[in-house]
């Protein structure tokens, strides 16, 4: 575990991820606001989870902006915000990819252009996953309204779903982190090894979000005296700690992978390898025809 933590360089990469997350967060919610208008989701439904997941001190600063972006999202802004979000988020994903690869003891071998393309594709993929999760949670009541009478389930289930935010938020974050740990590293991993790390990271992140106000009260109270600038500093603290927890979850998964499977197997998804594979198939088919 100690070796994996050292290889991951958690402290440095968590700062990089926090920086690009800060750049991407507002364009992301503008883009999300445009998307929920298309599918007809109420912005307040999303704000319920946003308020739960973001520390109270941070929410006081960015909450009104996020709500405004969600309620007044414009389809005409999709192209501009999409480019800004893709650029900033893909840089963050690239930093996550490097940190996760180092967690598994893998050195970055992809060329710059290939790495950027892969990061952008992964950014789009995870954006779709997050959007689908938002839709699933937003329409959860409609789904239960359909299922409950057909399977003769207790009506209390519907009330519980609407009342309890923690299980819903936990499930959504755990799904995203599991996908993150499974897809991004440039090696083959097993679900049984990464799920404990994703559950641990999810738990840690929720505890951080709910308990961050205590940290501000007892350890960083003087920072808040700087007003808006102080709040942005606090936001960077929270993003930094969040990134640290996410990378640590990957370290747990990497340690499990080495423990249960005595090492890792590299993915063979490079462009060069794919071209070679296709070339071999063409040559083999040509020889069979002869």
From TrEMBL:
Matches recorded under InterPro entries: Virul_fac_BrkB (IPR017039)
PANTHER family: INNER MEMBRANE PROTEIN YHJD, UPF0761 MEMBRANE PROTEIN YIHY
NCBIfam families reported for this sequence: yihY_not_rbn
Keyword Membrane: yes
Keywords linked to the UniProt accession: Cell membrane, Membrane, Transmembrane, Transmembrane helix
UniProt main location, coarse: membrane
Matches recorded under Pfam families: Virul_fac_BrkB (PF03631)
Residue intervals passing through the bilayer: 12-32, 75-96, 117-144, 164-184, 196-216, 228-252
Compartments, record wording: Cell membrane
Name assigned to this protein: YihY family inner membrane protein
Topology class, membrane: Multi-pass membrane protein
Lineage: superkingdom: Bacteria
GO CC entries: plasma membrane
UniProt KW Nucleotide-binding keyword: no
């Amino acid at each position: 575990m100690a070796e994996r933590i050292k290889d991951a360089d958690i402290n440095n990469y968590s700062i990089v991820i926090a920086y690009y997350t800060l750049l991407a967060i507002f364009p992301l919610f503008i883009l999300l606001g445009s998307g929920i208008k298309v599918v007809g989701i109420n912005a307040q439904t999303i704000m319920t989870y946003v308020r739960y997941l973001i520390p109270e001190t941070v929410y006081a600063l960015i909450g009104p902006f996020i709500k405004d972006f969600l309620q007044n999202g414009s389809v005409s802004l999709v192209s501009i915000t999409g480019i800004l979000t893709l650029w900033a988020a893909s840089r963050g994903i690239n930093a996550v990819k490097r940190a996760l690869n180092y967690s598994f003891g893998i050195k970055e071998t992809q060329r710059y252009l290939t790495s950027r393309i892969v990061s952008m594709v992964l950014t789009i993929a995870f954006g779709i996953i997050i959007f689908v999760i938002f839709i699933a949670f937003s329409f959860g009541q409609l789904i239960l309204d359909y299922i409950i009478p057909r399977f003769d389930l207790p009506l209390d289930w519907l009330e519980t779903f609407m009342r309890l935010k923690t299980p819903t938020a936990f499930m959504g974050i755990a799904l995203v982190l599991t996908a993150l740990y499974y897809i991004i590293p440039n090696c083959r991993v097993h679900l049984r090894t990464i799920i404990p790390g994703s559950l641990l990271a999810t738990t840690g992140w929720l505890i951080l979000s709910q308990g961050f106000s205590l940290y501000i009260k007892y350890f960083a109270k003087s920072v808040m005296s700087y007003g808006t600038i102080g709040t942005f500093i606090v936001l960077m603290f929270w993003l930094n700690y969040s990134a640290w927890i996410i990378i640590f979850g990957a370290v747990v998964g990497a340690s499990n992978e080495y423990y249960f499977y005595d090492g890792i197997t590299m993915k063979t998804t490079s462009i060069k390898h794919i071209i070679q594979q296709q070339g071999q198939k063409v040559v083999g088919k040509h020889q069979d025809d002869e």
